Structure to design on (76 residues):
């Protein structure tokens, strides 16, 4: 899943080497934390959050086969 998130986000940003994805696995869910350069936040979030919503939709669909809820948090 980390590779999928990186593959989606890396082409969108100015500083692809600063894209970092970490995860926290809990009993009933997996939370992925996406960190990008401060200047790239607007590109990752998009107007009215449309890009972030699209990324989350793809990630959630890809994680549907797992029996845990998938969450994606975006931070600087």
């Amino acid at each position: 899943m980390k590779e999928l998130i990186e593959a989606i986000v890396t082409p969108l940003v100015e500083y692809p080497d600063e894209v970092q994805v970490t995860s926290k696995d809990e009993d009933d869910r997996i939370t992925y934390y996406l960190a990008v350069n401060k200047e790239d936040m607007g590109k990752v979030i998009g107007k009215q959050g449309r890009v972030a919503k699209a990324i989350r939709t793809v990630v959630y669909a890809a994680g549907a086969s797992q029996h845990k809820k998938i969450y994606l948090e975006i931070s600087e």
User: Anything to note?
Assistant: The chain has a mean pLDDT of 92. The chain has three helices and three strands. The helical segments are 2-9, 41-45, 50-62.
